[in-house]
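User: Can you help me understand a structure? I only have the sequence.
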Amino acid sequence: MWRSPRADRRCPTSSRPPPASPASCCAPWPPHRRWPGDRPADRGRLDRVDGRRRRRRDPPRQGDPPRRQARGRRPVTTQDYQLLWLDPRALAQHPLNVRSEIGDITSLTDSIRTKGVIEPLTVVPLGDGGHQIVAGHRRTAAAIAAELELVPAIARADMVHAADDRAGAAEHVATMLAENVHRQNLTSVEVARGVQEMLDLGVTIAKVAKSTGLDPKRIKLAAGVARLDEPTAAAVAAGGLDLEQAAVVALYADDTETTTRLVEAAEHGAGNFAHAATRAQQDRKARELYLAKVAELQAAGRTLVDKVHMQGAKNRSLGALEHDGKSLTDESHASCPGSAVCVVEDWNGPRVREVCTDFAKYGHVDAWAVGPSKPTTAEGKKAAADERRQLIEDNKAMAAANATRRQWIRTVLLERRRGEKDVLRFAVEAVTTFRGDLRGWLDSYQPDDAAKIRAELGLQPPWKTGAEGEPTLTSGEGVTDARLPLQLLAHVAAAIELTITKDVHRKLDIRQREMATWLTFLTTQGYTLADIEKRILDAAAKAKP
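Assistant: Let's start by predicting it. Here is the structure, written out as tokens:
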């Protein structure tokens, strides 16, 4: 069958002519002429795909209005966006608002009162002439609380939909999610550095507080956080620590081990961070006391050694030495050329131990060589040293847990507006469960530790606050009926805490059992146990028949 040369040049799937081949004997088709059967294309270009014609739109040019991407809806134009100033009290709440609670808007209100609404709301016009909020419910509530008369809003005419338009309603919800899901708050380090930049520019703390809505106390904390080195700042930001926690970390910026421990504790909750912070504070205080004692001894001209030995070394504690059959004392050894001291960090603070630097050279005898009950093997000495080291560590952990727990009782538990039924029930049952402890607490004669407990819990002596010295559990204050269970619990807590010392973990006795009952109740109120407290609970649970 004969075919026209022109037909061979035609592409079966396109109306466009093929490119001219150098070997072709035919000239290219003139560009000003159309192929037979082609129809003139109006304004856009036409492609043939799978047998159907599809309009291909030219790329947008500068100055073109924005094109709407949603299929089936008209293109968005600049007329769809209108900046208005609206009364926040007249705005209608969206019935499909994804945020169930507005939350605390105190800081936001302070900021809006000073700076106004910086980011406009997103609203849609209503048929009655009003407007409905799509994005900005918290800003609206804060603006009302700040007593603003008008707020900026972007009215989106393209988002108006009929009452039965499910796709339009879904678009509103998608807008709410898009505004919040991808939003990332500033980290505590970023906030601190921003505050510090304002302070460096000469802005006073009062003006920073007024312009940002931050509490002045938090602004003062920002100074230390802003000076954190980059690795620590990155760890704080990655751990999600708030400004108060970051300020605690900043106190130990020169101690990498402590900052690492604090950041790791924060990842397990605020309660664990509080325990770690108390332990860090106590360790820092103990270290300062140790260094102060070392400086005092050096100023007195004493020779100091880093470590003291009971056996197996030239450096030996006087408690392990004898001279001419008599035990050495500090006074009798003062004239020895080997007289020195070693400062030992103990749970009660730094302790000074007298040492002889070379006991054999100066005629002293090893007192440990006498008596079969004393450790003579390397394994025995190591076991004794490890046991004592663990005891010191546990005592420190218990002391830190005691301080953290009492701080939580005072600032969280006892500060509640009312005592719930479980609080009243525990306090009433404690009258019999802890009757001995309560009797000791209510007695006019108390041990020396009672003053410390009263200070930690914020209580007055129950026998000195009433009229003419009559006992009262309300500390002479007007306590509301709703808070009376908490006031009773405060004295129950003081009675129990008075029996809890830093060595309570050592033996499962009546004190541990009572403490386990107390700790179990506190956990129901939201308290986070320290590891040493968990051990006490576990030991008490295993001991139950």
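Now, to help you interpret it: The longest strand covers residues 339-346. Residues 378-413 form the longest helix (36 residues). Let me know which part you'd like to focus on.
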